[in-house]
Write a structure and sequence with these properties.
2 domains
Length: 421
């Protein structure tokens, strides 16, 4: 079955001067040359737990991986493929992380490569491998083998949502997006799926992200572009300040659109498209944090340098006190200022301006280091929405950063108190 290239619902917008279309009903298989599927192999009690992504055209690839010193077997394997720069498939299992599993775990990750390559008739080293789930358990390879076989047989079915569901763990919703970017009288597409809900920290969060594009781009430029984009998006997400063993974001570029980055596609246009997709996925991860009821966006301006802006923005969304106050719609702004103060960023209290609210309306709480009289009930009302914005102007420079987080609820504790029991 050949997927339709046209999505049913389209939103046209301009992102950083780049026109693009969000294809709301599109899947990864709507990006030219790709197929994607998902299957329930029994690694989890419910929902699909095997995902397979495939391109018949050899693709350049890039990847960014966990910064945890304890690294899962599939991360080790996929780093090798990314270093070589070419891939044609991604195979993912959820329900078992295949982390801290010794030599057997490494063998099992390579076996996943070999099984997938055998069905697709490609080289094993061209298969990226990812796993997510409980640490310290060996993969049930009989179920994995059967699941990969079934996912391979389902590639042509183009079932909506299947690939995005297959990578989920405690996620409550699938996370995916496909966009189309016009270039002259042609266009290229870029799509992605991601998972993440708990153990999310702003340093390659506990998450998996898989991106595909039908543009052509050399591996070196793709790697640099992905790293810069991840720094501005996924690395600015936090749910609970924990970084896992399996985190990765990888991207495949198969060139099927007949457009090349650096030739027909300006590099700036491609990077802005990549940033938009990653930003969308990062925000959906933060919004779906375990037990979360609100998305928190921390906007820092006026920093001396980019590092300071990021540190301050991340400190705000990482603070359990800030997260708890947002959950209770309590305008206890001292907690925000406290987080900025210990963030490591250069700050001068007498220069700081602080506002809270939503995207449309904010209340100023601090002006040039001086507290501002404000209506607490009105501030609380603004904080009751499902999207809370915190604005901090350090007043020292021109650099900015935005970090994405969520509130801290009782349900978060309950989920993680019974994760394996």
């Amino acid at each position: 079955m050949t997927p339709q290239r046209n999505a049913q619902t389209v939103t046209t917008l301009v992102h950083k001067k780049t026109p693009l279309k969000i294809l709301h009903d599109a899947e990864l298989f709507h990006v030219k040359g790709y197929q994607a599927s998902g299957f329930h192999a029994g690694l989890k009690k419910r929902r699909r737990d095997i995902t397979l992504i495939y391109t018949k055209h050899a693709a350049t690839c890039a990847g960014v991986f966990t910064q945890n010193a304890v690294v899962a077997a599939p991360v080790m394997i996929s780093r090798e493929t990314v270093k070589a720069g070419t891939a044609q498939a991604v195979v993912v299992n959820s329900g078992c992380a295949n982390a801290c599993t010794g030599e057997q775990g490494l063998k099992d990750a390579r076996t996943m490569q070999e099984i997938t390559a055998g069905f697709l008739k490609i080289k094993p080293e061209h298969v990226l491998v990812a796993s997510t789930g409980v640490i310290g358990q060996l993969l049930p390879m009989d179920k994995v083998h059967a699941g990969i076989k079934a996912a391979y047989e389902l590639l042509a079915e183009n079932e909506p949502g299947a690939a995005a569901e297959g990578i989920m763990t405690t996620d409550t919703v699938p996370k995916q997006i496909v966009i189309e970017v016009p270039v002259g009288n042609k266009s290229f597409r870029l799509g992605g799926i991601a998972k993440g809900s708990g153990m999310i920290a702003p340093n390659m969060a506990t998450m998996l992200g898989f991106l595909v594009t039908d543009a052509a781009i050399d591996a070196t430029t793709l790697q640099k572009s992905l790293k810069e984009s991840v720094d501005e998006t996924f690395n600015n997400v936090s749910v609970d300040h924990d970084t896992s063993t399996n985190d990765m974001v990888v991207v495949l570029a198969n060139g099927a659109a007949g457009l090349t980055v650096g030739k027909e596609i300006p590099l700036a246009v491609f990077k802005q498209a990549l940033d938009y997709v990653n930003m969308h996925l990062a925000k959906t991860i933060a919004r779906d944090g375990e037990g979360a009821t609100k998305l928190i966006l921390s906007h820092v301006t006026g920093a001396l340098n980019k590092k300071d802006a990021r540190q301050a923005a991340k400190a705000i969304i990482n603070s359990p006190l800030v997260k708890s106050a947002v959950h209770g719609a309590d305008p206890n702004w001292g907690r925000i200022l406290c987080a900025v103060g210990y963030s490591g960023a250069k700050v001068e209290l007498e220069q700081i301006v602080l506002r809270v609210g939503n995207a449309a309306e904010q209340i100023e709480l601090l002006s040039k280091g001086e507290p501002v009289a404000f209506n607490r009930e009105q501030a609380s009302i603004l904080l009751r929405g499902d999207e809370v914005h915190i604005f901090v102007d350090l007043g020292l420079g021109t650099q900015t950063a935005t970090a994405y987080g969520c509130d801290l609820s009782r349900e978060y504790v309950d989920i993680n108190a019974h994760y394996t029991t």
